């Protein structure tokens, strides 16, 4: 039996349970984590952060909740207000807007007393009067019992301690984690991330802090400025101006197999290999040789750690990082890295996650994520626009009991069943059979993993994910998923968290057999009754279909059959080439058991005739003038067959290259010639078009309707009322390729849904020729890019112009006017924007709102 999907709404106490937040805007579930066994009863516990909680009337001080594990069972729901000390307890923040619980984690056993401890981050706390320097709190585990509530202000060194940030706006504690035993002294350590500080005078470079465990006791407070190498050390993220450690820290397990735990730090705003905000992650190896008081990540050289480099601009790799357990069963811990804004094949912000395998063969000083090939790791691809898969990543323990560690990936922007931002989480099973270089989350079918679907609009389930250990004591690891946007019990954004119990699929009944069908790429068909090949079809009811993996379209007919249509998805197959499609259906038996069944469809390719994509334009040419023009771009063969071209009626002196489709030569005779061109795919199919060649001995007047690519071209706007071309100008050479560029304003453009915010389009010059027309929607970064206005009715692009080289870097810049913008709340005061040129390349789009150091992406 396989379960390909699980709805969080179906948790009933037997397969998991929901943990309900209390008050409006508590955002419980904003952070979730395994808490180890904090009360020493032999069962794993969990911790849930609610940074918006208002304990003791202190608005936004934040709260964290510990829920104890047990083997007595759980109800379908647990209200956090019902924690009473016996089943868990609440940990209350101190001052208003401290945001305690923004991050939570197990701390291992930091004080060596045999009980697991926890750590809680409060990044907006003001230690020693330093505004938002941040604090982190360690709460010690104990078997002496806990009261129903614990105030963080009561930590005194015997029950825990506070770790104080250093400078204003450091936001230390925005990320916290166990660090394992990084220094090999037998005591677990912790790591704390700080968002914005300036080590070594490098503004916004960032720092992270490792605090060593000890059985010698802790004072009631520890200043991070007192770390000296003996009690911990600071890690300087000063690899690149504007990197900012941005608080993404985690244990990495023992990735290099040397017996010491390692750590990983994500720097999602790093400019990796010149790619803006591609992101980087850094692995620091553990050692028993000691650490200096500070370590610069720029000094990692392969022997003490290594850097993992992101790929494309604005991927934000390192936005989430975690130990992945040993997912491939080779005996070495692996790591997982989220790249929340990666665009997969034009699917914007679908997100990607990268698994890097551990090894004792050594690591180079750097690893490029684009080099993962299945042997050293693999990429996990998100599905839909704005899913944000990889927003959170974690080990899932061994949830299916097969002996291999699994992973969980959160996609809070996912819209299961069309429910906007309900969120989705994906469990990928480990195995020792190997992984391909890439895995699409859409292909999870129950055998290799499954999807967990959120419930309501804007719940954002999957914003936080974690292993939950074995909270119910059944021998299978469990997972926890946070949904801070959920309106628990009708309370706006009180938040909810969901525990999903692990299970052994082999113990579940196999209700139905897999089905196989075939068709060709152009032929829809109706399947036979998929239940007829099952042992007891009369006991089965077909509940629903899951068409997430399907490239074609599938319709449930309600009688055990399905209508399937390839729907053009396989037109690129050549004759007799084979493609594969799939979908799943869910059945239930008379006892209420559920099974997800895979249907595999073999798609056979047929020959598709060449097509005429656009008319060949008429040509006006002069006698004795050498010319060349390409007609091949008017034809297309979706199968990819090479086309052969022939022509009838060409003027004397002109010839058509049958392979390239280029007409060239010198026309010798005046007149009007009707030319017919034929494209042949050599499989018995052709396409043809006719055009006119007018040969004269005097230059013809240029009609705008006659622009054909050789004498100029037209640039087409996109949407109704965009008013593209309302302003136009030379843009100089903005991309430094030696060719002048142009800029076009469209004041009526509606970027990002903002009505009349306006858009401007830069079209790059070049010597490779232009088609007769260019659609502005086709600008992709290589041929130009769009510049998006900010707010509704700004009318950006009202005026556009070259700005010369305003910053003296050798590249021409541009200026864009938005005459109706409202800066600082001043109605229609207007704004102008300068965009700097460079030769590092441009994305397909640039938001004018990004003309600042960086935009935080934490919401």
Write the layout of secondary structure elements.
Elements: E1 5-7, E2 16-20, E3 31-36, E4 45-50, E5 63-67, E6 77-79, E7 88-92, E8 103-108, E9 117-122, E10 135-139, E11 149-151, E12 160-164, E13 175-180, E14 189-194, E15 207-211, E16 221-223, E17 232-236, E18 248-253, E19 262-267, E20 280-284, E21 294-296, E22 305-309, E23 317-325, E24 334-339, E25 352-356, E26 366-368, E27 377-381, E28 392-397, E29 406-411, E30 424-428, E31 438-440, E32 449-453, E33 464-469, E34 478-483, E35 496-500, E36 515-520, E37 525-526, E38 541-546, E39 553-556, E40 562-565, E41 578-588, E42 594-604, E43 611-612, E44 619-622, E45 626-630, E46 635-636, E47 644-648, E48 654-656, E49 662-666, E50 671-680, E51 686-696, E52 714-716, E53 724-732, E54 741-746, E55 759-763, E56 773-775, E57 784-788, E58 796-804, E59 813-818, E60 831-835, E61 845-847
Parallel strand pairs: 1-32, 2-6, 7-11, 12-16, 17-21, 22-26, 27-31, 36-42, 44-51, 52-56, 57-61
Antiparallel strand pairs: 2-35, 3-4, 4-5, 5-7, 8-9, 9-10, 10-12, 13-14, 14-15, 15-17, 18-19, 19-20, 20-22, 23-24, 24-25, 25-27, 28-29, 29-30, 30-32, 33-34, 34-35, 37-40, 38-41, 39-40, 41-42, 43-46, 45-49, 47-50, 48-49, 50-51, 53-54, 54-55, 55-57, 58-59, 59-60
Q: Could you write a compact summary of the structure shown?
A:
Helix content is 0%, strand content 38%. By secondary structure, it is mostly beta strands. The chain folds into four domains: 503 residues, Integrin alpha, N-terminal (Methylamine Dehydrogenase, Chain H), CATH 2.130.10.130; 86 residues; 96 residues, Immunoglobulin-like, CATH 2.60.40.10; 137 residues, no CATH class.
